[in-house]
Amino acid sequence: MPVTDFTTPEKYQYLNGFQSYHESEALPNTLPIGANSPQKPNYGLYAEKVSGTSFIAPRSENLQTWVYRILPSAAHLPFEAYHEYEPSTNIHQVPQQLRWDPFDLDGEADWIHSLKQLGGVGSPATKTGLGIYIFAAGVSMPPQQAFYSADGDFLVVLQHGVLDIQTELGNLLVRPNEILVIPRGIKYRVDLPGGAVRGYILELYDGHFKLPELGPIGSNGLANARDFQAPVAAFDETEYGPSSWTIFTKYNNAMFTATQSHTPFDVVGWHGLYYPYKYDLGRFNAIGSISFDHPDPSIFTVLTNPTADFVVFPPRWLVQEDTFRPPWFHRNTMSEFMGLVLGEYDAKVGGGFRPAGASLHNIMSAHGPDADAHAPASEAELTPTKVGEGSMAFMFESPLMIGVTDWGLEKCRKVQPGYNAESWVPLKRHFKMPTGGIGKETKVSS
């Protein structure tokens, strides 16, 4: 079901289409007509362009936004290394199937200091690969602090709590069962109006997310472009004293800070294709088989990129005949990182995969339903059945081999040592030799 328990008035705008051109102004006549950078913008503002793609990218892929602000972003003192943030420098490539217990909430950490890298591959410096993070914050960011990642786009999957996000382009309130995408370089701060928060982040070092092509599905289905929401322009005109704001930036997985005398949230108007947005996963229109066989999870893709896909497993009907309905046992050329927002995932019923936990099945690491799920699914009466009621599971799927950090393997103390032994070792042997010998048209013995 779509989220309906709005805790504050909605101040978002629905997009004309996903990643379509959009504009917003907090004061009338802020946006210029014609030239994007007029000699003198209205209200004495400065024109500044934020580019998310190269200047010569094809028109259909070019993502850039013009902002009209009180002071330009360049007006800050030099960046300095920030050593209180510990980057994960060691990445371990392991074939082992991994599953984590729910990650603990941290009552003392703010957004920046709660970011823990669980895994990743590639390099932000070369714009290749991705990073996977867990966040578990207990307090709002201190006043007059802001953050941006120069490394990539943040796809935030909130599992617990409420995020009140103030971005350069406006505000977004994010609740469980909603996702948030904040593009590379966009500044924001995070307040926690409901207390502690927890969730997952996929940082995309290469390119940006798109909606998947629908192909034979047609013009409707999966995530509809009209359901994505973007912020409305809002600005702070307060004058501050010298060096009163601290800007944190994640740069090549290290943290730096710079100080400035003005707020970064001084954008009076903006227009373009490069902006943060949120999406309610309850609005996802699941597609499935209505005859036989269990389709690949690609039919549940919300957002896609050559580096990684974001896939969800929402409440849905299963109606296939003569079919093993949970996901079959498989080995993929893809890596699969799964998380659980709420409820119980229908293919993992043994209790080990819980909300706020996670699993990683890397390239060609065999996996599938656990023994507790396989046995009843093999004998179930194949009537129309709704699965996933009150549940939302998701997957970050990538063709790359995802490494695991020291924090993910050891320091978090959440890896389940008995994952294999409890999930698949208990599977029983059911093989029966045919009577009458091999190669003959005989019946299988009962």
TrEMBL record:
<feature type="binding site">
    <location>
        <position position="345"/>
    </location>
    <ligand>
        <name>homogentisate</name>
    </ligand>
</feature>
<feature type="domain" description="Homogentisate 1,2-dioxygenase C-terminal">
    <location>
        <begin position="283"/>
        <end position="431"/>
    </location>
</feature>
<keyword id="KW-0479">Metal-binding</keyword>
<dbReference type="GO" id="GO:0005737">
    <property type="term" value="C:cytoplasm"/>
</dbReference>
<dbReference type="InterPro" id="IPR011051">
    <property type="entry name" value="RmlC_Cupin_sf"/>
</dbReference>
<dbReference type="InterPro" id="IPR014710">
    <property type="entry name" value="RmlC-like_jellyroll"/>
</dbReference>
<feature type="binding site">
    <location>
        <position position="367"/>
    </location>
    <ligand>
        <name>homogentisate</name>
    </ligand>
</feature>
<keyword id="KW-0408">Iron</keyword>
<dbReference type="Pfam" id="PF04209">
    <property type="entry name" value="HgmA_C"/>
</dbReference>
<comment type="similarity">
    <text>Belongs to the homogentisate dioxygenase family.</text>
</comment>
<feature type="binding site">
    <location>
        <position position="336"/>
    </location>
    <ligand>
        <name>Fe cation</name>
    </ligand>
</feature>
<feature type="active site" description="Proton acceptor">
    <location>
        <position position="294"/>
    </location>
</feature>
<protein>
    <recommendedName>
        <fullName>homogentisate 1,2-dioxygenase</fullName>
        <ecNumber>1.13.11.5</ecNumber>
    </recommendedName>
</protein>
<keyword id="KW-0223">Dioxygenase</keyword>
<dbReference type="GO" id="GO:0046872">
    <property type="term" value="F:metal ion binding"/>
</dbReference>
<dbReference type="Pfam" id="PF20510">
    <property type="entry name" value="HgmA_N"/>
</dbReference>
<keyword id="KW-0828">Tyrosine catabolism</keyword>
<comment type="pathway">
    <text>Amino-acid degradation; L-phenylalanine degradation; acetoacetate and fumarate from L-phenylalanine: step 4/6.</text>
</comment>
<dbReference type="GO" id="GO:0006572">
    <property type="term" value="P:L-tyrosine catabolic process"/>
</dbReference>
<dbReference type="InterPro" id="IPR005708">
    <property type="entry name" value="Homogentis_dOase"/>
</dbReference>
<keyword id="KW-0560">Oxidoreductase</keyword>
<feature type="domain" description="Homogentisate 1,2-dioxygenase N-terminal">
    <location>
        <begin position="13"/>
        <end position="281"/>
    </location>
</feature>
<dbReference type="InterPro" id="IPR046452">
    <property type="entry name" value="HgmA_N"/>
</dbReference>
<keyword id="KW-0585">Phenylalanine catabolism</keyword>
<dbReference type="InterPro" id="IPR046451">
    <property type="entry name" value="HgmA_C"/>
</dbReference>
<feature type="binding site">
    <location>
        <position position="330"/>
    </location>
    <ligand>
        <name>Fe cation</name>
    </ligand>
</feature>
<dbReference type="GO" id="GO:0004411">
    <property type="term" value="F:homogentisate 1,2-dioxygenase activity"/>
</dbReference>
<dbReference type="GO" id="GO:0006559">
    <property type="term" value="P:L-phenylalanine catabolic process"/>
</dbReference>
